[in-house]
Design a protein that fits this description.
The complex is a heterodimer of chains A (560) and B (322).
Chain A: H1 9-25, E1 34-37, E2 41-46, H2 52-66, E3 72-77, H3 79-88, E4 95-100, H4 110-117, H5 134-145, H6 149-166, E5 170-182, H7 202-207, E6 216-221, H8 236-245, E7 250-252, E8 258-260, E9 263-270, E10 273-278, H9 292-300, E11 317-323, E12 327-332, H10 339-344, H11 352-363, E13 383-389, E14 393-398, E15 410-415, H12 419-428, E16 433-434, H13 441-450, E17 454-460, E18 464-469, H14 479-487, H15 491-497, E19 503-505, H16 527-536, E20 540-542, E21 545-549
Parallel strand pairs in A: 2-3, 2-4, 6-15
Antiparallel strand pairs in A: 1-21, 4-18, 5-16, 5-17, 5-18, 5-19, 7-8, 9-10, 10-12, 11-12, 13-14, 14-15, 20-21
Helix pairs in contact in A: 1-2, 4-5, 5-6, 14-16
Chain B: H1 2-27, H2 44-53, H3 60-72, H4 86-121, H5 126-134, H6 141-155, H7 174-178, H8 181-198, H9 200-213, H10 217-224, H11 229-241, H12 243-257, H13 261-266, H14 272-281, H15 285-313
Helix pairs in contact in B: 1-15, 4-8, 4-9, 4-12, 4-15, 6-8, 9-11, 9-12, 10-11, 12-15, 14-15
The chains are: A alpha+beta (560), B mainly alpha (322).
Amino acid sequence: MTETPSFSRRGLLLGATALTAVAAIDAPASAQGAGGQIRRITLISAAQASDPQEFQAANLVAQAWRQLGLDVEVRGMPRPQLSDLVWRSRDRWDTTMWRMVGRPERSDPDELVYNLFHSSTAETGFNFVGYRNPAYDAVAEAQRRELDLARRRTLINEAQQLVMRDVPYFFLVYPQNVIAFNNQVMRRETVVDQAGIGQRNFWTFNGAEPVGAQRDLIANAAEALNAINPLYISGAIDSWVTDLVWDRLMRVGPDGLPRPWSAESVTTVNPTTVDVKMRPGLMWHDGRPVTLDDVIFSFQAPAGSEAPMYRPFVTNIAGMEKRGEDTVRFTLREASSSFQTATLAKVNLIPKHVWEPVLARLESSPQNAESHQEVEPVGSGPWKVTRFRLQEEIVLERVANHFAPPKFNRWILRVVTNTEASLGMLRRGEINFLADYRGDPALLQNLARQAPQIEMASAIDMGFRFVAPNLRRAPFDDVAFRRALMTALNRNLMVQAAWNGFAVPANSHVSAALTAWHLPEAHRANMQEARRMLEEAGYRVVNGRLHYPAGRQETLQSLQ
Amino acid sequence: MRYLASRFAQMLLVLWVVATLLFLMFRLLPADPTSAFIDPTFTMEQQAEIRAAFGLDKPLWEQYFIYFANLLQGEFGQSFFQQRPVLDILVSALPNTIMLTVTALLVAYGFGVLAGAWLAWKRGSWVEAVAAVLTVRAAPEFWLGMILLAVFGFGLSWFPSGGANSAGARFDSELARLFSLDFWHHMFLPALTLALYLQGLPLLLMRSNMLEVMQEDYVTMARMKGLPESRIVLRHAARNALLPVVTAFTLGLGATVGGNVVVETVFSWPGLGRVLVTAVASSDYPLAQGAFLLITVVLVVMNFAADLLYSVLDPRVSHGRG
């Protein structure tokens, strides 16, 4: 449960603006030993209408940096245009607001620790800021190979320390996910808080117990679904459905760690060999048994060209073989500490008898498996699809003979595009689980106060919001400059003023929600200290504008 | 017949121009649609593969010819995001939109015509002054919808807060769903919002036509013959004043099919307007093109129908005969 912020967003902004003005007057103006004047820096952000929190945070960042003498312009643009610029024109932009979203497979820090900052992904991959540090590369590679938990934790800590030292990102906040449910429909104790994901998760949907006569768990989604397809990562909301309908060999548990699911046990024979023993009696929704051939097929199917979105999760598999009646042996190309989370808990088990003919037919067509929508989707999960209208509603029915049968009879997802209406629906019982709320959390908090049957919950997300500097471009290529800019940012102010109190300050690419891996850091914003750091690094403020150290001239253009 | 053929040819020309503009418009947007779609973990080869699968790796002229050849075969392409044929997506959203639009238009025009005629009859009285103020053409749909939702949905609980059916409701067929009490119960508030928004035009049109017609000689003649006022208004004046309203109705039908975005969003109504907005926001070219094209077809066909209807309803109007 969350506390109400004690002061208003407007008040905070006014205060911050006033401070900016005072600090600007106070700015030193020394021309001694100054280089060229730093160009106008453009901080790009999602447009205000599409992401008001991000836009507000961008303005607070710009205000703080202006106090250091930087000329900063905040430019909002549509998200696709922003992604296009940042992703495809890696040497054109200066700084951008960015976010990493939480996903169950990111419960293992490998994906973010490796992909975000390893130099091999700087050219065209995830490392869009262009951070290159051989020491970091070595640590990121070592943690990937390390199977001993304690030793791996040390390596992950080391990676975080390097990032805190080198400041390739200006971390802002870990947002809090907000949901609400009707405690007269489902038992409060059975709503599970999954580490880094919050209460809207597989364990809640599958394990929540009804307390009254209502046997339908009715949740909302703020936008229409794209597809229900086990070979297509088509959207966040779509994944809620695929999670329930298709089982995996393992699932990421409420504690954030992978646990056997369709598998009875998972044994690491040696760093590159993993044995998976299947549970007995697993059935597909069409009544046929789940076989070892199905399991092997499920990991072979994405390896071809028909399911490009799932391919990265299986590329490390060198081979699979049946061992006995109930075991599949996976041989890996290289040791991988995240194999269980990123592969065994990610890849959906699909029936060979359904998908083999489909994939064969698609091979000679321009489409791939992502374009195939089953009329009656067949999985082996605890819920089966009864009917679906992607714009409107998805209805799932419990599979009574599943090894972990759901407690509710039906799981219904309604598409409700009006945020205020979703609150009204929750109050009236038209929905009983507010799974997707994009409005002001304070409104939901008020509703929960007025209606005792409504219970609100929030949890820290494993995703994070940050400002990404382009390390390819001066002055962001200078670590001293980046450290000073980081020191100037007041993350507590961001939490209150931009996220209305529903976030916590961020300091690392491993979220505070991942308590087993996160490395805390005491950080206090200090404008004087930031100025001192710039001064020490040779930067000078001349007539209120920040200049490069002596001998260095501006060679770049501002973003047009 | 010649007139018909000429109007038909004009119609095709308009459709071709619109289809071409739509093609160019979406490709001139600043962002590559795959930016929002491609996962950052993909390699460049995988990204290129996805772009190739969408046909975005081909030169623009080639994309244009493929697009047109497909259109001529009734093939609208495949949605980038939903990975389904565009036509399927549009067809699945169309019944909800048609039901909502036609119902709202019938209510709006039925009410508008009667109220317009009555106001013309009551010209100069206090009734006219009050009614003119209550004509809510100027009230934004969003505001109107939210007020109705707050009062009749959240407050009185007379109507559901959104959607086209109750959660998990089952129906034997699509037709059974569309004509079920549950569907109409859900449609009441969105249809009322749209009808209230739309009724201003027919009301004012009918009123001004009526005022004009009431000055005609044949109305004076009817009065001289001593016919009752109600009969003069309904039989003589209203029938003639109705012609422009009928035209407005057909045009309104075309315009409203794609213009329900606000009402559909407020009431979470799963219709064409929402498909269109989602498609534009996510740069889903084929889906956005298909939706716009469908709206254009309805609009152009309704224009055509209005022209024909006008000449049928009013024999004084002739086409192409000098």
